Amino acid sequence: MAHAFPYTEIACPCTLNVSAADSARRTSVSVPQATDDDEEQTFNPHSPRANFSLYSPNDLLYCDDCHTIRCPRCWIEEIQVWYCPSCLFEIPGSAVKSDAEPAQLAGPFIQTCPYCSWTSLDAGIQFATSNHISDQLLKLRKPRSQEQNSDEAGVKAIVQGQDAPPILTLSHEAHFSNLTSFYKTLLNDAPTLNPYAVFAASPGASAYSSPSNLARIITMYSASPSKNPQKKVLPLREALTSAEGLALLPPPASLGSETEIIARMRETGYFDTASLEQQREAPINYEKRFHLGKDALWPVATLLRTRRTRRCSTCRHILSKPETKQGITKYRIKLLASEHILRFMLRPLNLPLISASGLLKPHSTILYVLVVRNPLFNPVKVTLATPSTTPGKVESRVTILCPDFTVGASGEGVGNEVWDDALRSSTSSSRQTSSALSASGHEGRHTSGVGFEDRVPEAGKVWERGRNWVSVVLEIVPGSLNPPSIPLSFETLSIRQDQSGTANAVPGAMREDSETIGEDDEEAVLKIPVLVRMEWDADAGAEGPEAGHKGEVAKEKRELAFWSVFCIGRIGA
Amino acid sequence: MSRPAPVTRRSAKTEYIETDTGNKISRRARIEGKQNIMLAGKSVVMAGATLRGDLHRKSDKPAEGEKGSSVTAISVGKASIISTDCTIRPPMRLSRGQMTFYPMRIGDNVFIGTGTHVSALSISSHVHIGAGCVLSPFCVIKESCKILPDTVVPSHMIIPPGSIVAGRPARVIGEVGEGLGQGGGGEGEEYVEGGDLRPLVRSIK
Q1: pLDDT for res A225
Q2: Are B140 and B118 in contact (CB under 8 A)?
Q3: Which of A75, A190, B75, B93 has its CA 20 to 30 A from that of A134?
Q4: How many other CB atoms are there within 10 angstroms of residue B109's CB atom?
């Protein structure tokens, strides 16, 4: 989501085409009948579900086999290479265990943070060499965890009905290893539970992956009856003892452990305690509360980052492929949505008709210019459609003055643009750009002509036209956040002056108390959903030498429709 | 944003001095050691920006008769924009009792927002830095990153290519979409964050 108003977002059509066939196979999930009137239903950008399908145009890719845009939900990512985010060293396919050059400097090493001046000495950690830090950390942890385990080693099983329930905690490694071995034995003995689990890696994998099941099936089909009675099949159970990996939360006020912690927090102060975020970062640190001493957070290695190849999930076509060579961040293949569908840009026609606070005033008409740019090599016929009032709780009226127009084609190569620039700048009078340059640097370049400012937007006509772009005017009347209820009478007109009381005072108000909309609400942002429909003639796959021999290339009519949302600004009260 | 000064009887002084290579330097920019600062071309330095080119490594003593080579303290790439009230200072380190400065390299198409303090060791190309940021000494910012306003990047941090970075201390909060930077530079087209900044440079008068 962009930060500066106005911005546009595009809704990926993948969400509207959920096929009923896929969901019918799963009997456990009941899916409401997919309504097939998605074209007739207006896209409501304020609905909670809309958040999942709206993306900034920068984030979208385009599959040219399927001729549709692809969002992060409808592509598959394949990891190409792993690399360290600090030194940008790429890990080759086989795990690298080779040692680096021997450390030049002798002496103990510590880790320090240049921002908050924490050092690893605070947690009692010192390193002998400056590389293989993860190995050294692991070695340092083992004596600590053993010491911790021996304290609670006496308590082994759940005791029922005792007054003081025992403390049952395990160090992280012991916990993990006990639980994994427990679950592995359980899965080997358990029958198949999920006939739909196809992959062997998923839990409850299919019948053929478990050796005991295979054995059972073979004995079933073999002629001789099995001599041993069938083992009774138990359902999966949870761990019961600490040897199986059970670890209990310490009960409150048990053995003074909490009071100890509180006393320590009182001594050391707030800034020496670890935040929840820090505790949750790695399982090692789940119960660690301090930055100093024995109970301190343990340093955790940063995860490696990846460079990924993206594929269309339906046709497996590669959408984006980064360069494999190290150090080069370009892409080998990059099919961007912004190069295959229209690009939008909004700016106010007259500046600025917003109040000093930057909020839009309700009931005052504002005019915005929408610039539609066509990156394709063919002219595109564009149709825009939007409901006359915006959906959602705040109703603003929107009119597009010219909903049907054609945008020219982008020329090939840079040469054309340079010529056009030169021609335009010599014939037009220079005009100061009146928009202020904000920190994010948005600025429009106006084509200029004499008497430009005197034009009035007319319905049915485009505002401006360029070689591959067209701009039209949108007339927007923001609605008010908390309108009084209908019917309007003189009494309600006077009550309207103080809007906060309106919802209470007028009976049968359109909005209830809980629904009064403040300026900070998400609903106060003026979002205009527009259905954009592009039609163009594309050269249908001129592959092979036949296209060259024939005089003409077959033209194919293509069309694409998608919802896009223009976020204009926030409405003030 | 500058506008040409109103025409008065004295000769009209423009806000920006334009060099042969297309660099635009504001008259109100504070530049020290200008011979040690290289601006590649079509870059903009706005009013109030402080560029400390006087903080450079002492060059080795030239042999007799040879001219000492000039040391570049700050080198800025093409089409980069340094906004108002920024401070660009080469990173320095105290080693063996002596303060050594390291040359700072800023790449092409870098936008540095207003009021930021830049002491980074290097900033690669197509980076967008928001307003009010602090880039502490020796941090390294790789290509196509986006640094949100009011971030503090701690010293020696390396920001991998294509990350979105925010917070104090700066944390990588996301990755830049592939389309970032596309779509700028055409006619009738405004400047796009992370993209070619030449139209923006052209429009600054």
Answers
A1: 55
A2: no
A3: B93
A4: 28
- Does position A560 have pLDDT exceeding 50, yes or no? yes
pLDDT, tens digit (0-9, with 9 covering 90-100), for A433-450? 333 333 333 333 444 444
d(CA A271, CA A281): 18
Question: Are the Cβ atoms of A329 and B144 closer than 8 angstroms?
Answer: yes
Main-chain dihedrals φ then ψ at residue B106, nearest 5 degrees: -115, 135
Given a cut of 50, is residue A548 above it in pLDDT? Answer: no
d(CA A275, CA A531): 46
Give the three-state DSSP class for A334. Answer: strand
Q: Are A158 and A181 in contact (CB under 8 A)?
A: no
Residue A516 has pLDDT above 50, yes or no: yes
Chain B contact set for A439 (CB, 8 A): 83, 113-114, 130-131, 149
Nearest Cα neighbor of A457 from A433, A435, A431, A475 is: A475
**Rounded Cα gap, residues A520 and A50, in angstroms:** 19
Interhelix angle A172-189/A211-221, nearest 10 degrees = 10
**Which tokens is A161 given?**
């009905």
Give the closest residue to B204 by CA, choosing from A346, A441, A421, A345: A441
Q: Give residue ranges of B with CB < 8 Å to any A CB.
A: 1, 3, 81, 83, 111, 113-114, 130-131, 136, 142-144, 148-149, 152, 154-156, 158, 160-162, 169, 172, 176-180, 182-183, 185-191, 193, 199-200, 203-204
Euclidean distance between CA atoms A349 and A529, whole angstroms: 20
Cross-chain CB nearest to A442 (options B143, B155, B190): B190
CB distance A20 to A33 below 8 Å: yes
Q: What is the C-alpha separation between B95 and A366, in angstroms, rounded?
A: 61
Does the structure show a pLDDT above 70 at A288?
yes
The number of C-beta contacts closer than 8 angstroms across A and B is 110
Query: How does DSSP assign A35-90, residue by residue?
Result: PS-TTTSPP-TTSTTHHHHEE-GGG-EEETTTTEEE-TTSEEEEEEEEE-TTT-PE
- Taking only residues 446 to 475 of chain A, the set having a beta carbon closer than 8 angstroms to any beta carbon of chain B reads 447, 464, 466-469, 471
Supply A326's token pair: 């190290």
CA angle A64, A66, A71 (to 5 degrees): 85
Residue A73, phi then psi, degrees to nearest 5: -85, -20
Q: Find out whether A385 and A530 touch, Cβ atoms under 8 Å.
A: yes
Confidence of residue A25 (pLDDT cuts 50, 70, 90): low
- DSSP secondary structure of B63-89: PTTSPPPPPPSEEEEET-EE-TT-EE-
ipTM of the modeled complex = 0.79
Do B137 and B187 touch, CB atoms closer than 8 A?
Answer: no
Question: Residue B177, Cβ neighbours under 10 Å: how many?
Answer: 23
B-chain CB neighbours of A467 within 8 Å are 187
Three-state DSSP string of A238-258: CCCECCCCCCCCCCCCCCCHH
Smallest CA–CA distance, residue A66 to chain B, in Å, is 19
Through-space distance between the first and last CA atoms of chain B, rounded to whole angstroms: 8
Percent of chain B with pLDDT over 90: 56
Q: Is the pLDDT of residue A495 over 60?
A: no
Q: What's the whole-number mean pLDDT along residues A178-200?
A: 68
